[in-house]
Design a protein that fits this description.
Number of strands: 12
Largest sheet: 8 strands, mixed
Strand order of the largest sheet: 6-7-8-3-9-10-11-12
Strand content: 15-25%
Helix content: 25-40%
Order of helices and strands: EEEHEEEHHHEHEHEEHEHE
Number of helices: 8
Radius of gyration: 20 Å
Distance between the termini: 30 Å
Shape: globular
């Protein structure tokens, strides 16, 4: 079996006597889109920062491509909640800055051509000479996406990148991300509070319990076809099964888990892998994978 691109082994984060999260184990395969959902205070952004190398776990290990993460790397690109563009540079200049950092030996012409490729990828052709102050919020986030993708990272980290946008712009950018990931097979780890966004974008959804001492309660497999769009998402029979499962967890089970603790058979090294899109008939046709360290147990949920 191949090594997953991202692997977290028992990580914890503590501030003095306060434990934000502990004993987290999960992995993300190459080309997979994973979303992390949980209430505020469970340490979602801290986990992303640890993956990015911008922060360090108090305990445990993080591996990317089989190598332990010890600091930032151009193999890991981050898209923050705010666009984080340099206001004195144009659209092309912001992207070219990242490209030059990745390939300092490239000529100006090669940098320009490579930057233009990603400007076109996010449909910003014609806006190359505009500065951030001249762009809408959605256009700024497109620049942030293009800049992150332009360095051709092995892993793209997204921290609620659409949360500050209006609903229409957010929907358009979500579909842009779907299209880009389908074209590039980019590996993505994304934090979101939006259940529908997670169902639209993710191949699997990691559910965190409430903090402090947050844990991974389960990992939900998205059984909707990858060709899904915002317009036909709700028509698929799996959609409401998955959505109801996520909502029920966030409203009731995440708090109950934190108050009463996990069940006796809960193993943090092997959090349950659930497929709420499957009905009981489909579930019986699913063969459970062989048990091994780090392989979640498959559970079907109506």
């Amino acid at each position: 079996m191949t090594e997953p691109l991202i692997r977290l082994e028992g990580i914890a984060k503590r501030f003095g006597t306060t434990t934000v999260f502990e004993n987290l184990h999960f992995s993300v395969e190459a080309g997979e889109f994973a979303c992390l959902i949980g209430h505020s205070g469970c340490g979602k952004t801290t986990i992303l920062n640890v993956l990015a190398g911008l922060d360090h776990a108090t305990e445990g290990y993080v591996f990317v491509g089989g190598r332990e993460v010890s600091g930032p790397s151009l193999d890991r690109a981050v898209i923050f909640q705010s666009h984080a563009l340099m206001p004195w540079l144009t659209v092309a200049g912001n992207i070219a800055f990242a490209v030059k950092s990745r390939w300092p030996e490239w000529s100006s012409e090669k940098v320009r051509a490579h930057s233009q490729k990603y400007i076109d990828l996010v449909n910003l052709g014609g806006a190359e000479k505009k500065r951030p102050a001249e762009l809408s919020g959605g256009m700024k986030q497109r620049v942030g996406i293009a800049r992150a993708l332009s360095i051709e990272p092995r892993m793209l980290l997204m921290d609620e990148p659409f949360s500050a946008l209006d609903a229409l712009t957010r929907g358009v950018l979500q579909e842009e991300v779907l299209r880009i990931c389908a074209e590039t097979r980019q590996t993505v780890f994304m934090i979101t509070h939006d259940v529908d966004e997670a169902i639209l974008l993710a191949d699997k959804i990691v559910l965190m319990t409430n903090g402090p001492c947050a844990k991974i309660a389960e990992i939900v497999v998205n059984t909707l076809p990858r060709t899904r769009t915002r317009h036909d998402l709700h028509k698929h029979p799996h959609y409401y099964r998955i959505r109801n499962h996520l909502i029920e967890f966030l409203v009731d089970r995440s708090r109950a888990f934190a108050l009463s603790g996990a069940s006796a058979d809960y193993d943090p090294r092997n959090p349950p892998l659930v497929k709420p899109g499957l009905d009981p008939t489909e579930a019986r046709a699913v063969e459970a994978p062989p048990e091994r360290h780090g392989t979640p147990t498959l559970v079907a949920v109506r």
